[in-house]
Amino acid sequence: MRPTIKDVARKAGVSISTVSLVMNDRPVPLSPETKRAVLEAAQELGYRPNQLAIGLVTKKTNTVGLIIPDNSNIFFAAYTNHLETAANELGYSLILGNSNNSAEKTVHYLHLFADRGVDAIILAQSEFSDPEMTQKCLDAVRSLRIPVMLIDRLFRTRSTEAVLLDHFEGGYIAAQHLIGLGHRRIGCLSGPLGLTSFQERLAGFCQALEEADIPYDPALVVEGNLLADSAAPVLPALLKRHVSAIFAFNDMMAYGLYKELSRMKIRIPEDISVIGFDDLFFSDVLQPSLTTVAQPLDKMAKAVMSRLSQILREEAGGESLTQVFRPVLKVRDSTSVCRTETA
Ligand code: RIB
Predict the structure, then answer these.
(1) CA distance to 130, 204, 306, per residue, from 321 (Å)
(2) Residue 58: what pLDDT?
(3) Ligand 1 binding residues, C-beta < 6 A
(4) Best of 200, 225, 278, 280 for a ligand 1 pocket test (most atoms within 8 Å of beta carbon)
(5) What angle do CA 209, 211, 213 make, to 5 degrees?
(6) In terms of CATH, what superfamily is 5-49?
(7) Which of 54, 83, 187, 266 could form a disulfide bond with 238, CB atoms 3.0-4.6 angstroms apart?
(8) Which atom of ligand 1 lies closest to the CA of 73?
(9) Do domains 61-166+297-327 and 167-294 have the same CATH topology?
(10) How far does residue 141's CA lie from ligand 1's centre (Å)?
(11) pLDDT tens-digit readout, 81-125
């Protein structure tokens, strides 16, 4: 049986309200002996104040809910770590919900976290390939009376607190790097093109092609599901069209390309260059190390928590703020000068 505040009061020989004042460190005149008696009794009993009960009084639990679409994707695991570090530095705890890319589970976690008294929610996927699901999610966000910060895959609405990457620039610098190496027949292994973030990456890619007078060939764009196993089934379509380089819209799919190209005895970068997106931990360890587009997760995580803390301290003013961060090209060994004639 979990010890209660009444057990602590009885053991310390004080009133319940005295225990509450001590445990919540309220600035009231209590003798050091009384404080020590209460803390010793609480420690001996293993008493922990009920955060929900405290939240009902103070309206704060110093807890933030984080909903991510897929914790098996290393990108979201890495982003979660940065967000938790940033949250802890500002005195907040993070609780995690994994929606498995499901709008229904996303809505479930939005309501669950709000009901459990979190002070705010960080939502890493408010957009889905099905527009009806996106609307369902945004309706749930708007129905909550606590701040919701949108990150990463968001459907830009007129008034959202958001921290996001400039996905367009990410696609642009990836293509520019390959074009600078002489590649003209560049394949794309894209993310789900029903999502704005991947549409923007493709648009940036196309902008770089246009600036280099390289005609855009939609036959060189194949869609993946962001996981490594989606690379193998679509790779033959690109090889048949004699691409000399492939831009994978995330590192996880680039890893899948490595595995399949190795099985086919196709060398990276001698026979084909590969560039990824996200700069995950393994990308620098791989042989050859993966050239990729890095997302400044540490900076974005700090911006998310700093903004939420400002809002919760009611120091943010009335206007919603969308903060956009620039991607960074990390040139490594998986891309090299184009050696094929037909490229
Ligand atoms: O790997 C997951 C991808 O989807 C990342 O590029 C991230 O931006 C997310 O949207």
Answers:
(1) 26, 24, 12
(2) 57
(3) 73, 75, 152-153, 191, 197, 226, 250, 252, 277-278
(4) 278
(5) 70
(6) lambda repressor-like DNA-binding domains (1.10.260.40)
(7) 187
(8) 1
(9) yes
(10) 21
(11) 999 999 999 999 999 999 999 999 999 999 999 999 999 999 999
